[in-house]
């Protein structure tokens, strides 16, 4: 039983076809849904729940600090409360909420029927949900993390935080990060490869640019923290001393890895919110955004420069002044592309005729609050000022102005704006305005005052304070403000809930918007569009207001579903010229089962049940390989592979479908993790060379021989693919098996080198990092072999051949990557220390 | 490969700041290594070999980015190109100019501060 499209008529055979192919099941089968609309909504609703939990913790904090010398909560519980508040808001609310909104909107805005990897969306959601539940469960076990949301070592290490507190954070957040990175990969590929025909890059909705940059930032920015979390968990659980200076490690390495992620994270949250602003302002001003190209320049520049700021969180740890000045300069620099966007918004307001509807109110609030937050950010970029207010409530106030101003206000504008999309109904203007003013007033009362509290010297993270220090009144005012803000949130929630019942029905395109998401029915069907139009400009609904009707009548392309496939266009990344038909997988329980298995791994590690963790890991790998099996020419992926004469081929019948792009972007994330690991290696050599001179060494010859074998394998594979591309699949299975054999031989050599080295990973950071690096290489090489062996098997079963050549082209980049990391790893891990010893 | 290097290839949208990022890591890493092993005395002020080397590294990047920006500007002026390609060429040129300015701005402290204090 599936849901019918809203507004579908029972006698429309086209809609019946589409419903049969795309419909969402109900009951327990709803676990199998992979459709982006449902997944996006699930992300946002779950994010809202975590926001409310984080908000309750914030109220607890403000209650405690309202008066001096209070004992509402003790220091231990207070530590847990502020750690979990920050963690929940950053990792479980802000990022997933923005990703959820993007997952919901992007296909609709770019004229596609779904994201290109729907099962990955589903896996991402389940990982997010399970990771969030595991993390939040720690609150009820009195085992919540309590070392601050950035988990600085040595405070978070086993010696200073015994018990599972930090483990909950490290494992839970890493679990949630699988979700973030998977959504990042699929948003990048979807935006680049599945836009509507004719939608060249210069015609893409501006929100698409913001999400493209955000997703790339997630792909590159999250892996350093994933690496840091794995290393810290290994230190806590297995005694590998990556951050212990007595054994050659360094606690500042954690700070580097955390902030390599942490500062871009601020922009990962801000950019999609700014994308909402750039989308909504033109609609409510009735004119295009001023300076589209300038805004694109600003967004790309922000994305890059934000990676050059991480050390500005570490100005007080003892870094040379010149190095601080580099980061101080970059911190000031990033204000410029942000200012370009602000001026573009102001110019759009100036030249347009603004309508001050409810979403617009939040946008104006955003401009005021965010500009204030940005200005205090420039103040903090100045090293001497930063030294003065470091770790005070000034920083807390600045951070909330940037994050709440830069994320929450635009988010609320967006939620009100797209509310008719979610429910088919309009919000209440009156209740909505009450909610806005209560929140706006409460927020500023809380955090404007907090700047002064900080300037008066009150440190952050203290659970109470003595009277007479001048902090009593500002703290009381902040606490009163926070409760007003909470009443504002309650009013907004009430409005959201009530509008589902009492909101008036939304007309088609109720805000007179220009972007394609308003060409769907309200609420939209799972397939978004009954036919896919050609897009010739940036404002399709302004230039062609009849598009919603002509799309629904099936007057555009891919207007049939009688083949039983879920289809959308695969288009050229630059021009938007159609190049293939992407056939998307249908509903599947595999992502849910995979996430469940990973969840068992996580819980087992927390409970130190390592055998169960191992079994669950093997089960996860099995499920994921089964998932990969149902691809390409497999009947489950394309039940009917026939196309109309003259139609473009299905992507599985080409050599360059979205999977290849997905592999490329995934390897970019993987490369970021690898480079972070090399950074750690070189960093420890620089700061603690004494600890990096262990006796244990890998032998050169197995690695050199391995590089030779892998080079031969990569060349052989390349030759096979060249022939396959030319339509020659003779002896393909045998060749792939032989290449796999070479890879296995190389992996065996690597394993031998590791076992032979006699490393003592608990005794020194050198050996620990060396072992970690070699295991990283080994896992990748074995994975490459496993995937290629499966391809060889698929060739024998007739699932890969000259007609369906796609999948080996997806696997090949992994082999090239493996060769690259093995060769560079040899240079970094074996040759570099030799030069060091010689010097 | 030739297509990748075209001023109209989408790679140009990231190349300018990618080069800047690599240079940024290079000067930060280079400074750390220099200070760890060959730290000049603080009394020498900012006129040290370290400052000179790090500052000199900015010049080729500045010049190369300028050349790429000029190339993009010229490609964007070619009206025979499609609007998408011209958009990419001109936006890419803008990114290269931003890379140039960012290089100069971040290198400025080399004229003012000693390296390892």
Automatic annotation (TrEMBL), chain A:
GO molecular function, one term: heme binding
Pfam families associated with the record: COX1
UniProt cross-references to CDD domains, sorted A to Z: Ubiquinol_Oxidase_I (cd01662)
Membrane topology: Multi-pass membrane protein
Positions of the Cytochrome oxidase subunit I profile domain: 28-536
SUPFAM superfamilies the record matches: Cytochrome c oxidase subunit I-like, Cytochrome c oxidase subunit III-like
Pathway in which this enzyme or protein is active: Energy metabolism; oxidative phosphorylation
Gene Ontology biological-process entries: electron transport coupled proton transport; oxidative phosphorylation; respiratory electron transport chain
Positions of transmembrane segments: 39-61, 81-106, 126-148, 168-189, 209-232, 266-285, 292-313, 325-348, 360-383, 395-419, 431-456, 476-498, 589-606, 612-629, 661-683, 703-721, 733-755, 767-790, 817-836
Metal-binding among keywords: yes
PROSITE patterns tied to this protein: COX1, COX1_CUB
Leading EC class: translocase
Catalytic activity: 4 Fe(II)-[cytochrome c] + O2 + 8 H(+)(in) = 4 Fe(III)-[cytochrome c] + 2 H2O + 4 H(+)(out)
Domain of life: Bacteria
Similarity-based family: Belongs to the heme-copper respiratory oxidase family.
Protein name as annotated: cytochrome-c oxidase
Organism in which the protein naturally occurs: Pseudomonas mangrovi
From TrEMBL, chain B:
Keyword entries, A-Z: Membrane, Transmembrane, Transmembrane helix
Domain of life: Bacteria
Species this protein is from: Pseudomonas mangrovi
Listed name of the protein: Uncharacterized protein
Protein's UniProt keywords contain Membrane: yes
Transmembrane spans: 48-70, 90-112
């Amino acid at each position: 039983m599936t849901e019918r499209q809203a507004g579908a008529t029972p006698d429309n055979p086209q809609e019946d076809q589409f419903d049969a192919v795309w419909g969402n099941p109900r009951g327990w089968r709803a676990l199998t849904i992979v459709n982006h609309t449902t997944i996006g909504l699930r992300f946002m609703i779950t994010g809202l729940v975590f926001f409310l939990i984080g908000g309750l913790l914030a109220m607890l904090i403000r209650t405690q600090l309202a008066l001096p010398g209070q004992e509402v909560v003790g220091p231990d519980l207070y530590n847990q409360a502020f750690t979990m508040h920050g963690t929940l808001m950053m990792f479980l609310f802000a990022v997933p909420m923005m990703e959820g909104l993007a997952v919901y909107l992007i296909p609709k805005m770019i004229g596609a029927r779904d994201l290109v990897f729907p099962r990955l969306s589903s896996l991402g959601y389940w990982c997010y949900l399970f990771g969030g539940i595991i993390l939040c469960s720690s609150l009820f076990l009195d085992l919540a993390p309590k070392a601050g949301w950035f988990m600085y070592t040595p405070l978070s290490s086993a010696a200073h935080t015994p018990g599972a507190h930090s483990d909950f954070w490290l494992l839970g957040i890493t679990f949630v990060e699988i979700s973030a990175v998977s959504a990042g990969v699929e948003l990048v590929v979807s935006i680049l490869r599945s836009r509507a025909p004719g939608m060249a890059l210069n015609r893409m909705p501006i929100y698409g640019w913001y999400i493209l940059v955000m997703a790339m930032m997630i792909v590159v920015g999250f892996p350093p923290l994933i690496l840091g979390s794995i290393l810290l968990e290994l230190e806590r659980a297995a005694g590998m001393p990556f951050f212990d200076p007595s054994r050659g490690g360094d606690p500042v390495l954690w700070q580097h890895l955390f902030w390599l992620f942490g500062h871009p994270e601020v922009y990962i949250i801000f950019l999609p919110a700014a994308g909402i602003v750039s989308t909504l302002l033109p609609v409510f001003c009735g004119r295009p955004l001023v300076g589209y190209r300038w805004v694109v320049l600003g967004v790309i520049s922000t994305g890059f420069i934000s990676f050059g700021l991480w050390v500005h969180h570490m100005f007080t740890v003892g870094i040379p002044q010149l190095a601080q000045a580099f980061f101080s300069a970059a911190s000031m620099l990033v204000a410029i592309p942000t200012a370009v966007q602000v001026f573009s918004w102001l110019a759009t307001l100036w030249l347009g005729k603004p309508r001050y509807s409810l979403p617009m109110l939040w946008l104006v609030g955003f401009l005021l609050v965010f500009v204030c937050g940005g200005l205090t950010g420039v103040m903090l970029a100045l090293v001497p000022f930063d030294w003065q207010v470091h770790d005070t409530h000034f920083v807390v106030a600045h951070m909330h102005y940037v994050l709440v101003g830069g994320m929450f206000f635009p988010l609320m504008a967006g939620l009100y704006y797209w509310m008719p999309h979610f429910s088919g109904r309009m919000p209440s203007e009156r209740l909505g305005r009450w909610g806005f003013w209560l929140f706006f007033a409460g927020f500023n009362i809380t955090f404007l005052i907090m700047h002064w509290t900080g300037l008066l010297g009150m440190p952050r993270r203290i659970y109470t304070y003595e009277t007479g220090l001048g902090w009593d009144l500002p703290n009381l005012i902040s606490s009163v403000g926070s409760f007003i803000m909470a009443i504002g949130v309650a009013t907004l929630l009430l409005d959201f809930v009530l509008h589902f019942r009492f909101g008036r029905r939304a007309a088609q395109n109720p805000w007179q918007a220009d972007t394609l998401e308003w060409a769907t029915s309200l609420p939209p069907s799972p397939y978004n569009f009954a036919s896919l139009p050609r897009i010739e400009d940036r404002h399709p609904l302004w230039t062609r207001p009849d598009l919603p009707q002509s799309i629904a009548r099936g007057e555009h392309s891919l207007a049939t579903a009688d083949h039983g496939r879920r289809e959308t266009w695969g288009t050229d990344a630059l021009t938007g010229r159609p190049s293939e038909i992407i056939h998307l997988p249908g509903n599947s329980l595999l992502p849910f089962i995979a996430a469940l298995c990973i969840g068992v791994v996580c819980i087992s590690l927390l409970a130190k049940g390592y055998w169960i963790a191992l079994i669950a890991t093997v089960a996860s790998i099995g499920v994921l390989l089964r998932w990969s099996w149902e691809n390409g020419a497999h009947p489950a992926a394309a039940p009917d592979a026939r196309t109309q004469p003259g139609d473009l081929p299905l992507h599985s019948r080409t050599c360059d479908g979205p999977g290849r792009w997905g592999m490329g972007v995934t390897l970019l994330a993987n490369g970021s993790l690898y480079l972070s690991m090399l950074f750690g290696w070189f960093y420890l050599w620089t700061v603690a060379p004494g600890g990096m001179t262990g006796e244990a060494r890998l032998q050169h010859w197995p690695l050199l021989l391995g590089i030779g074998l892998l080079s031969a394998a990569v060349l052989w594979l390349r030759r096979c693919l060249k022939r396959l591309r030319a339509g020659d699949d003779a002896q393909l299975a045998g060749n792939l098996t032989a290449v796999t054999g070479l890879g296995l031989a190389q992996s065996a050599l690597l394993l031998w080198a590791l076992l032979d080295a006699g490393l003592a990973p608990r005794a020194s950071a050198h050996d620990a990092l060396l072992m970690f690096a070699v295991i990283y290489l080994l896992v990748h090489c074995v994975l490459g072999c496993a995937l290629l062996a499966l391809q060889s098997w698929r060739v024998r079963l007739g699932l890969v051949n000259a007609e369906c050549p796609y999948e080996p082209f997806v696997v090949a980049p992994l082999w090239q990557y493996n060769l690259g990391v093995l060769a560079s790893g040899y240079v970094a891990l074996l040759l570099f220390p030799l030069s060091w010893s010689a010097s | 490969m030739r297509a990748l290097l075209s001023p109209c290839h989408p790679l140009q949208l990231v190349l300018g700041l990618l080069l800047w990022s690599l240079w940024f890591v290079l000067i930060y890493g280079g400074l750390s290594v220099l200070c760890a092993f060959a730290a000049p005395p603080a009394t020498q002020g900012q006129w040290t070999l370290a400052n000179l080397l790090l500052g000199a590294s900015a010049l080729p990047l500045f010049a190369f980015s300028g050349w790429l920006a000029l190339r993009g500007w010229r490609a964007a002026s070619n009206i025979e190109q499609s609007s998408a390609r011209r958009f990419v060429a001109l936006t890419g040129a803008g990114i290269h100019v931003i890379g140039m300015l960012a290089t100069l701005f971040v290198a400025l402290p080399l004229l003012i501060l000693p390296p390892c204090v």
